[in-house]
Each structure stands twice: as C-alpha cells, then as structure tokens.
Write a structure and sequence with these properties.
Blueprint: H1 8-32, H2 37-42, H3 46-69, H4 73-100, H5 105-110, H6 114-134
Length: 137
C-alpha cells in the first residue's frame, strides 16, 4: 500500500504549484486590465465574465501541458510562468489591435458588449491551445 503513496508528495507539490500560479494569474490579469472584472462580474456583466473566463482557460491549458510534459518541478514552474506571460500578452495584443481600429476593448467589456467578451475569451483559449501544443516538444 505504501508503494502507491510514494508519488503523493509530488502530486501535492504540482497541485499546489499549479493552484498558486492560477491564483496569481487571476489576480494579476484582473489588476492589469483597465476594466475591473470582479466588479463587472458582480454587476452581471456577461462580457466581462466571458473574457475573464476565456483568459483563465487560456492560461490553464498550457499550464496543464507544462505539468504533463515537464522534466522537473522547476521546469513546470518556469513553463507556467511562460504561459502566464503569453496570456497577458494576448490580452494586450487584442487591446492594441482594437485600439488601432479606433475601438476601446475595455469600454466594450465595461459596457457589456457580449460579442467583444466572446471574442477575447475565444482568442485567449485559441492562443492557450497553441501555447499548450508548443510545450509538447
């Protein structure tokens, strides 16, 4: 029976490391975006919830890949940080693209334009999948 529990410390290390990265991502993402996700979500803004949820999934997908393909715990954490940066850059890339089109992404999200929330969430998930696949070397 004890043989089966040998991996338990590693399990908890990876689980807690992933949860810490996820919480840090959620906190930083919500602080770096010009709109206030939590206040908007509390007010029932579906666009904000969709965009934020997509970004969380877009981060979690490569985090999973890093966890599954890493050669060590430190390797996993470092690739998790890479996934973190890619997802933050994705938001700012979409924001910059729309800004160049004369639009404000944060204004659209704040005003509850669901199409923009869906767009940001979808792009975040798509980039997350590409990021995850890139980590399978």
């Amino acid at each position: 029976m004890l043989h089966y529990l040998q991996g338990l410390p590693s399990f908890f290390a990876y689980l807690l490391g992933a949860l810490a990265l996820l919480v840090a991502f959620m906190y930083c993402y919500s602080r770096l975006t010009p709109h206030h996700e939590w206040a908007l979500i509390r007010a029932g803004n579906a666009a904000a919830a969709t965009a934020y949820g997509g970004s969380i999934l877009g981060f979690t997908l490569p985090l999973y890949s890093a966890m599954a393909h890493s050669i060590s715990y430190i390797d996993f954490i470092l690739w998790g940080v890479v996934a973190f940066g890619v997802q933050i850059a994705t938001f700012f890339g979409v924001k910059l693209f729309l800004h160049r089109q004369g639009e404000s992404l944060s204004q659209h999200i704040t005003e509850g334009h669901q199409a923009y929330g869906t767009l940001v969430g979808s792009i975040s998930i798509a980039v997350g999948l590409i990021n995850a696949a890139s980590m399978t070397w």
